[in-house]
């Protein structure tokens, strides 16, 4: 995995201690599109399950993740597809 993937993984793990974390570099499907970079690591799909999301609305969960990844979203990451779940919620 690349450096940006590792950074996303490390930051989300540190911020939320997730019970489930799946990160997929989806950059290959966006080659030639706006924001795509030749080396990839510009478009990601993330599924994160953490107790921190319990009882919080979807938009609040997204803001929590966006805050944790603010540096990446301001720079190398062009797009992030996100599912933020509380334990036990269906994906």
Molecular structure report:
It is a single chain. With 91 residues, the chain is of the alpha+beta class. The protein is built from three helices and three strands. It has helices at 3-16, 58-68, 70-73, and strands at residues 20-25, 43-49, 79-85. Strands 1-2-3 form a three-stranded mixed beta sheet. The longest helix is centred in the first third of the chain and has 14 residues, at 3-16. 21% of the residues are buried.
- Structural class comes to alpha+beta
The neighbouring-strand order within the major sheet is 1-2-3
Question: How far apart, in Å, are the first and last alpha carbons?
Answer: 24 Å
Amount of beta strand: 15-25%
What's the SSE pattern?
HEEHHE
- As an assembly, this protein is single chain
Count of individual helical segments = 3
Instruction: Give unreliable regions as ranges.
Output: none
Rg from Cα = 13 Å
Biggest sheet descriptor? 3 strands, mixed
Tell me, rounded to a whole number, the average pLDDT: 90
- The strand count comes to 3
Residue share in helix = 25-40%
* Backbone shape: globular
Task: Summarize the topology.
Layout: H1 3-16, E1 20-25, E2 43-49, H2 58-68, H3 70-73, E3 79-85
Features:
3-stranded mixed β-sheet; 3 strands
Short summary:
The protein is α+β, with helices and mostly antiparallel strands. 32% of the residues lie in helices and 22% in strands.
